[in-house]
Specification:
Belongs to the nlpA lipoprotein family. The protein is α/β, with parallel strands linked by helices. It is built from eight helices and twelve strands. The strands form three sheets. A five-stranded mixed β-sheet has the order 2-1-3-12-4, with helices on both faces. The two termini are 22 Å apart.
Length: 271
């Protein structure tokens, strides 16, 4: 990936973009809007791929950057912003329930996937028996990491286990005798200096200025882990929500992703 990012992050995952604020027609809506995003690739995505499309539709867009995963949803719920982009659906649903906020995911966007990074190995075929693998220690990201290891054939998981809740106790076979070392997600980029392989979530990889395409392998993302545009539920039928969806599904948006967000995993709705 040619473009590098400095990205403030916190373990998992990332969120959404705009909410409507008017009547059924764009001409009748207040077209001055605010979109919230965490600093880094997703604020860049709003600026480069979403804002131009909305401005073509007559909107005046202000981008509000946040440095944490709390305030973007608080601001959306209070109406201080019209939409946000930083989180996946699991986080959105959990946060909205805990804070009693009526928020909704509108559409998923291309998202930086978790990857296996190493200074010890240049390819998957080189990985030796007994390799040390650092994984996130939070349940959501550890499940992603274990699924990624299983995709490589390095471990086997219980067949009836929910892939979203997999843990180490669900490993039934470990033919490579991998030594799994759970760590705080923020430590995983630095862990490649002390372990053979580190399973790094995409946001932390970008924060550490990793090139996503340098990963030994990138996860096949479950749709629930992709970042999304979030709005207030009461605005899901407003014109702004319709226009935002149209912009994200446009050829112009996809062209920007292809050029500037290489390695990002595209949503299932992209055919």
């Amino acid at each position: 990936m040619k473009k590098r990012y400095a990205f403030l992050a916190t373990g998992l995952l990332g969120a959404g973009i705009l909410a409507g604020c008017g009547d059924s027609s764009a001409k009748e809506e207040n077209k001055s809007i605010k979109i919230g995003a965490t600093s880094g690739p997703y604020s860049d995505m709003v600026k480069e791929a979403i804002q131009p499309g909305l401005e073509k539709k007559g909107y005046n867009v202000e981008i509000v950057e946040f440095g944490d995963y709390i305030q973007p949803n608080i601001a959306l719920g209070s109406g201080d912003i019209d939409a946000n982009l930083f989180q996946h659906s699991i986080y959105l649903k959990t946060f909205a329930k805990e804070k009693n906020l009526d928020l909704k995911g509108l559409i998923t966007v291309p998202t930086a996937p978790m990857g296996l990074y190493s200074k010890s190995y240049k390819s998957l075929d080189d990985v030796k028996t007994g390799a040390e693998v650092a994984t996130p220690n939070d349940p959501t990201n550890q499940a992603r990491a274990l699924n990624l290891l299983a995709e490589q054939g390095w471990i086997e998981l219980k067949a009836d286990t929910d892939p979203l809740t997999v843990s180490e106790k669900d490993i039934v076979k470990n033919p490579k005798k991998l030594v799994i070392k759970p760590l705080e997600a923020a430590q995983l980029p630095r862990a490649i200096d002390s372990v053979d392989i580190s399973a790094v979530p995409g946001n932390f990889a970008l924060a550490a200025k990793f090139d996503l395409l340098d990963a030994l392998a990138l996860e096949k993302m479950d749709e629930q882990y992709r970042n999304l545009v979030a709005i207030k539920t009461s605005n899901e039928d407003k014109q702004l929500a319709k226009d935002l969806t149209a912009v994200v599904k446009s050829d112009d948006f996809n062209n920007v992703i292809e050029k500037s967000f290489k390695g990002f995993s595209k949503p299932d709705w992209v055919k």
